[in-house]
Request: fold
Amino acid sequence: MRVIISGGGTGGHIFPAISIAKKIEKLMPKAEILFVGADNRMEMEKVPAAGYKIIGLPVTGMKRGFSLMNISVLLKLLRSMKMAKKIISNFKPDVVVGVGGYASGPVLYQATKMGIPSIIQEQNSYAGITNKILSKKVNKICVAYEGMERYFPANKVVLTGNPIREEIIKLAHTREQGIEHFNLNGNLKTVLVIGGSLGARTINLSVSNSLNMLNQYNIQIIWQTGKTYFNTAKMQSLGYKNVRVHEFIYDMDIAYATADLIISRAGAITISELCQLGKPAILIPSPNVAEDHQTKNAMALVEKEAAEMITDDEAIGSLMVKALDILGDEKKMKSLSANIKKLAIPNATDLIVKEVLSIVVKTELHTS
Reply:
């Protein structure tokens, strides 16, 4: 069996793609898997590190509004279309899986045009324009949220959830181990703040402006600042014994186990992990994403009383006040925890790979 997995751009696209590849290999050890990504994007480093071959396309995103640079973007798209067709012709895949990101569009478009069975793995609660167009041509669309029939043909939609890391599903660590790992006080409430790998400026400023207040209420903070804010946060936190500043947390499963409350952006994979954890969360959607899809992701939880949301504009003034309110309300904490846990789909990777294999089998039966 030969599989192309296309897409990337962010960890939220790449790591689910790798999870799908690993599951296919586990079920079919002789399977050949090729990744197709976008040149100079994160996947060109992360996919080979996971042991898979990847080919890069020159495709990039359109600039917002009128920009002469979009002429170059269109030329790169046309070149990427030609390259995608050649890659598919040479590799001869039995199935193509698109996980989102710039490269996913050209590859899925050419695959469907060439009659190759294809699947979209839609991670967000709001479908972008590319996937809406492609949905008419692909065989199946694996989604993580209910109600996606409003964007896609209902007969193609399968609710599978999003693939999440194995260590998050297992969560083998206890809170006590986390307290020891981060050298914290087991008697105090702990907030995990995830500022992103590069750093979410608003979230970081919200924390730094509230250090005195958090100290006054004896709240502990595990603070992932990201690269750009790390040195500033390190200086600002001097003298605060309950603050642990990290540029990046590699053992995120331990951090999750330690936290009583989690503060984060509202990326699709992050939300899927939070549902699996079943912990109270405050979501601050990034305003810098296409079609404001993080707000829609967050609202899907807020409407089920499974998380709290604060807009990026409001965060600096009210984020930590909201965090203290939740931590002080045991009934609210239990309710948020129970409601978000109901939304977890821990076997998402299995369900997606089942769909991948089933369309290959159906195609072979149809053509034999």
Remarks:
- The CA atoms of residues 213 and 320 lie 9 Å apart.
- Residues 167-341 form a domain with the Rossmann fold fold (CATH 3.40.50.2000).
